[in-house]
Amino acid sequence: MKIAVAGAGYVGLVTAACFAEIGNNVICVDIDESKINHLNNGVIPIYEPGLDKLVAKNRKENRLEFSTDLKSSIKQSEVIFICVGTPPKDNGEADLSYVENVARMIAEAMDSYKVIVEKSTVPVETGEKVVKSIRAYNIHKVDFDVVSNPEFLREGSAVNDFMHPDRIVIGAESEKARETMKALYQPLNAKILFTDIKSAEIIKHASNSFLATKISFINAIANICELAGADVEKVAEGMGLDKRIGKSFLNAGIGYGGFCFPKDAEAFIKIAEKLGYDFRLLKATQEINNFQRKNFVEKIENALWIVKNKTIGILGLAFKPNTDDMRFAPSIDIINELQREGAKIKAYDPEAAGKAKSILNNIEYCTNPYDAAKEADALLILTEWDEFKTVDLNRIKSVMKHPLLIDGRNIFDPEDVKRLGFSYISMGRKDN
Ligand code: UDX
Questions:
Q1: Which residue has a Cα nearest atom 33 of ligand 1?
Q2: Residues 6 or more apart whose Cβ sits within 8 Å of residue 243
Q3: Cβ neighbours around 220 below 10 Å, total
Q4: What are the tens digits of pLDDT across the range 62-79?
Q5: How many CB atoms neighbour CB 198 within 10 A?
Q6: Looking at residues 384-408, what average pLDDT do you find?
């Protein structure tokens, strides 16, 4: 099939490359000329495992091209995916101006039947607005369908998530649109759930909000475990063995970050509010998430007594492993607070240092965990990169000023590290 993808951001690039990989002819369009030039020279603007190879292969085989010409790509395509950004406005609502703009451009350019798919995360009722806007600017008076097909791609495993989804959600109002979307996704051999447009839109916000709530729930349990002298890892294991609960997303720690959960939870609260519902549960999820960061800083203060002029080493800056993404990373709030109190910060992250440099100032960026630990009064684990799980702890201990390990992601066994002579503090476990 011929497909246009509007937006060469995170979602757009992965969507374009993966649809090309399963045999479609895809044009990925962006207004950012320098981004398109880079992509045409084989430079991928984001770090996503496997994406570079997929882009290179499909460009070579002429199934994937990059362009700034939205108009011509619309004319050539049967299906157009809207993958432009929907960033949060100051009040937490999603800014839909890019979506509106693309919808208008599609309407003006299209000269034959098109399926127009919203893939960007949008508030419920956006589909209706897109339909209205396209009708208003549909100068060639052509037939069209709008579909909601939310993405559930995790950073760091987006290509794999696209190729092997748990489910594909398609909100459509016509048989023709449903058939087109079904044919498009057929090579993936995945479970497809057909719904109306509004339900599909809500599935996206509800799923992310539920996952965020699951994380805050286990973090609340972690705090209770600390107070009671229990072990949250065991509690999570015991809960997770119940199939209805499941064991994933029950890792206690310094809380969720990234561009999706914080933004989507905030947006969903606003959506509910506008519809007349006070989403108190989701507000509590946010509150607990914010508390985890403060609580972690308190642990550091309690352990060091005076933070001022102490050297604090940090392992991990990205909001989660296998990404260089720093957006809404817990590390930002934690480091800012420690710096405000006068700590000297040294940090190492396998991928995120480049992006961190534009957000966090006055940090000594190190090129390995041992340099970050050197002469430190405390070493913090803020992201659970695999590299940290196998670090030589004896070497770490030998270079630190004081062997204090404060683990915000519970990557070590408390007994093991204590046996090596560390003072060890973690999340929701005994002997903190
Ligand atoms: C998420 C959704 O998973 C994805 O479906 C959606 O499309 C975009 O948002 P992503 O932001 O890439 O994906 O991150 P994810 O892997 O889901 O993790 C989100 C955050 O939760 C991270 O900060 C992670 O550290 C945290 N987390 C996750 C926990 O604190 N504990 C857990 O048990 C799981």
A1: 249
A2: none
A3: 19
A4: 999 999 999 999 999 999
A5: 15
A6: 97
Does the pLDDT of residue 432 top 90, yes or no?
no
260 given a catalytic annotation: yes
| pLDDT per residue as tens digits for the range 27-62 | 999 999 999 999 999 999 988 899 999 999 999 999
CATH class of 2-195: alpha beta
Looking at the CA of residue 251, tell me the nearest atom of ligand 1.
Answer: 33
Task: Assign domain 260-425 to a CATH class.
Answer: alpha beta
DSSP 53-87: HHHHHHHHTTSEEEES-HHHHHHH-SEEEE-----
Give the percent of the chain with pLDDT over 90. 95
Query: Measured from the CB, is residue 256 less than 6 Å from ligand 1?
Result: yes
Ligand 1: distance of its center to the CA of 259 in Å?
9
CA dist., res. 402 & res. 225, Å (int):
27
Beta strands in 79-233 (DSSP E): 79-82, 114-118, 144-148, 168-171, 192-195
From CA 171, how far away is CA 174, in angstroms rounded? 10
What is the predicted pLDDT for the residue at 47? 82
Distance CA 279, CA 169 (A): 24
Question: Alpha-carbon distance 119 to 266, whole Å?
Answer: 19
Is any atom of ligand 1 closer than 6 Å to the C-beta of 247?
A: no
The token pair at 427 is 């999340």
Binding site membership of 215 for ligand 1 (Cβ less than 6 Å): yes
Residue 66's DSSP bridge partners are 28
The residue contributing the CA closest to ligand 1 atom 24 is 256
pLDDT value for 176 = 98
In the chain, where are the structural domains located? 2-195, 260-425
Give me the phi and psi of 311, to 5 degrees please.
Answer: -95, 125
Q: What is the pTM of this model?
A: 0.94
First to last CA, the chain: 58
- Cβ of 152 less than 6 Å from ligand 1: yes
The finding on whether 208 has its CB within 6 A of some atom of ligand 1 is: yes
For ligand 1, atom 16, the nearest C-alpha belongs to: 154
Pocket test for ligand 1, best of 15, 162, 261, 349 (most atoms within 8 A of CB): 261
Q: Determine the Cα–Cα distance for residues 188 and 164; give it in Å rounded to an integer.
A: 7
